[in-house]
Amino acid sequence: MFLYYILAAVAGAALALAIYILVSRSASKGRADAIIEKANLEAESIKQQKILQAKEKFLQMKGEHESFVSKKNNELHERENNIKSREGQLKQQQADLDRRQHDLDSQKGQVNALKNKLDAKMEECERVTAQVNKELENIAGMSAEDARKMLVENMKAEARSEAQAYINDTMDEARLNAAKEAKRIVINTIQRTATETAIENAVTTFPIENDEVKGRIIGREGRNIRALEAATGVEIVVDDTPDAILLSAFDPVRREVARLALHQLVIDGRIHPARIEEVVTKVSKQLEDEILETGKRTCIDMGVHGLNLELVKLIGRMKYRSSYGQNLLQHSREVANICAIMASELGMNPKVARRAGLLHDIGKVSDQDPELPHALLGAKLAEQYKERPEICNAVGAHHEEMEMTSIYAPLVLVADAISGARPGARREVIESYIKRLKGMEDLAASYPGVTKSYAIQAGRELRVIVGAEEVSDEQAARLSTDIAQRIQDEMTYPGQVKITVIRETRSVAIAK
């Protein structure tokens, strides 16, 4: 009985479960149908919207296409009208060309007719001229060639006579006007300030104890003073000035070499040509060492370190160079300090600015590429000796001869202007004076066989020393004329310039 109840309960539970499953499936199917119907409605709505959007896009693109086609049609019509207009113009030009060609053909025919007539007249003239020449030859008793030669000789003699007369008249006029012209030149020279500036910057006074020392310096027949001038390139002026000799040269290094050499010679007491050459060579080496020491001391004072040794030498040479009457080393130190101060105020690196300011004029003391502006030459040297690009640009651009790419370039430009433009800093005339003398020396040195060239007497004389093995006496004479002609043609100078070419032969033997 108990088992029966259990089975009945199980059967009832199974039946209830089956009824529940059937009812659940029926409800799920109803909900699924509702969802599907709703999805179909939404899909139909989306479909209608997309169709409407596609129609609108189509209508928009159709309008744009029609507008584009209309615009292109208008352009084509306009081009067609232009082409028709050009065709009309070309047809008109072609008609004009045809008419001109017809006119030219007509004129050509007329020219040919005139040419034929002219040829006939020329033949007739030649025939008449030959007949006349033959009659003249019979009358004169000589041929036409002989008569022509006689006429040429007569004309040559007349031309020589007239030329000589013109030369004599010119010489007489020059003699008459020489005194007047000389006075005018002297007055103009006095009125200019170049003389005083040149004396201050191109003359060194060497003190001596007495006239006996002055006589030993001059030597027998002036041979010592000539040897000293030839070795140093400095003009030594010995006049009535008591206890002093003047050393004149536009190059301060040469004057310093001559001064030191004279000092050693006077102290030593042995003054003769061989000793002079020995002392000058020794002093030149000492001065090079002093120039290097000056450069090193300047770099230490300015706090500029790590410079190439060649740049240090160039800085030392600035001590013996003036720029428009202003000492170049002092000017460079001043520019360096101004650059450093401005850089500090602007929040820049003052050490880089000071370095650029100190190096900005090194191109003025270098012997490389004399035709290159000193700013560009300075930039080239700085780049050659491994300076930083901003320093190279600052050096090369301080006269705006290259594009400024460094922030330090305007500082150097302004500092250079401040140092050079202040009242009393510079004298313009001395710079052109020195350039003129340097140009004369470079011109003479450009000839083959020239070993040395010196401009002396304020540029009124140019002494050229040539090698005896390379230049003969005849070539030396021709060389002086050639140099004089080039100076006359290529340079501007006051008064006259005397060119002296020196050719000396020395034979040396040593007894052992």
Distance between the termini: 163 Å
Estimate the global geometry from the Cα principal axes: flat
Q: Give the number of DSSP strands.
A: 8
Task: Quickly give the structural class.
Answer: mainly alpha
Question: What are the secondary-structure elements, in order, as H or E?
Answer: HHHEHHEEHHHEEHHHHHHEEHE
Task: Work out the helix count.
Answer: 15
Strand-residue fraction? 5-15%
Specify the helix fraction band: over 70%
Q: What is the topology, as strand order, of the major beta sheet?
A: 1-3-2
Overall mean pLDDT:
79
Question: What ranges have pLDDT less than 50 throughout 5 or more consecutive residues?
Answer: 188-200
Q: What value does the Rg take, in angstroms?
A: 51 Å
Main sheet characteristics: 3 strands, antiparallel
Number of domains: 4
Structural summary, described in words:
By secondary structure, this protein is mainly alpha-helical. The protein has four domains: 1-126; 197-283, 2-Layer Sandwich (Ribosomal Protein S8, Chain: A, domain 1); 322-426, Hypothetical protein af1432, CATH 1.10.3210.10; 434-503, Cation efflux protein, cytoplasmic domain (Alpha-Beta Plaits). The chain contains 15 helices and eight strands. The strands form three sheets. Strands 1-3-2 form a three-stranded antiparallel β-sheet. Strands 6-7-8 form a three-stranded mixed β-sheet, covered by helices on one side. The termini are far apart. Residues 188-200 have low confidence and may be disordered.
